[in-house]
Design brief:
Number of helices: 8
CATH architecture of the largest domain: 3-Layer(aba) Sandwich
CATH superfamily of the largest domain: Response regulator
Largest sheet: 5 strands, parallel
Order of helices and strands: EHEHEHEHEHEEEEEHEHHEE
Distance between the termini: 52 Å
Shape: globular
Radius of gyration: 19 Å
CATH topology of the largest domain: Rossmann fold
Strand order of the largest sheet: 2-1-3-4-5
Structural class: alpha/beta
CATH class of the largest domain: Alpha Beta
Number of domains: 2
Number of strands: 13
């Protein structure tokens, strides 16, 4: 049985979600304020397997709650509910640390499927230790990991390992990094990233992608201000170079 926390101030919606999730065999708790959710997760250290978080809340909004959780290194699988499906709102949610989003009004079956997907990812993470990569070529990959230089990308567990240092990525950070790795050695546009990684096809300020790139550079570059792996291609977008020229 999975434990799910719903943070939603519309009582009828929260109760409806609880009824349907409990019918699926889950244990569900409800909170109507962001501050209470943070207290449960960070102060009381209550254990949940997934978080359904509304953006529009009294007091701290969902973006702030998500951001504080990630800053506290709490990586609970997080589905964000947005009042609008605008690309700007979706990207803001991802930047705050959300793993998935769903605009209101939503189809209940889709919501349940999204939550089940997050729960499966958490189960995979708990039941599989990070794979130990074999020392082989400077750049190697498998279905679950990718090595370049002294860095190991563990796709399954959303981890980036550099020697003894391990960085936990959000799902969206990893999906972006995976996309860049798949296109290693060739430039990809911001528009392509929006469409292929986040399935966003509306006109929006594609520079919102830059915040994700900045974070990835902090993780993988020795000098983030002088990147050698994650390059800016002026007028186009970005390019990943696993083996930069010395």
């Amino acid at each position: 049985m999975s434990r799910i926390l719903i943070v939603e101030d519309e009582a009828h919606l929260a109760q409806g979600l609880r009824f349907n999730l409990e019918a699926e065999g889950h244990s569900v708790q409800i909170s109507d304020r962001g501050e209470e959710a943070l207290a449960r997760l960070l102060t009381k250290n209550e254990n949940y397997d997934a978080l359904v978080l509304d953006v529009m809340l009294p007091g701290k909004d969902g973006f702030s709650v998500a951001r504080e959780l990630r800053e506290a290194k709490n990586y609970i699988p997080l589905l964000m509910l947005t009042a609008r499906g605008r690309a700007e709102d979706v990207l803001k949610g991802f930047e705050s640390g959300a793993d998935d989003y769903l605009p209101k009004p939503f189809n209940l079956a889709i919501l349940l499927a999204r939550i089940e997907s997050l729960l499966r990812r958490k189960e995979w993470s708990q039941n599989s230790a990070a794979p130990v990569a074999k020392r082989a070529t400077p750049e190697s990959r498998s279905e679950e990991n990718y090595r370049f230089g002294d860095k190991l990308v563990d796709f399954r567990n959303l981890r980036l390992q550099m020697g003894e240092k391990v960085v936990q990525l959000t799902l969206m950070e990893m999906e972006l990094f995976r996309y860049l790795i798949r296109n290693a050695g060739r430039p990809v546009s911001r528009k392509a990233i929006l469409e292929d990684v986040w399935d966003l096809h509306e006109d929006t300020d594609t520079r919102a992608i830059d915040n994700f790139i900045v974070r990835l550079r902090r993780y993988i570059e020795r000098e983030p201000g002088k990147p050698v792996h994650l390059l800016t291609i002026r007028g186009v977008g970005y390019q990943f170079e696993p083996n930069p020229k010395q």
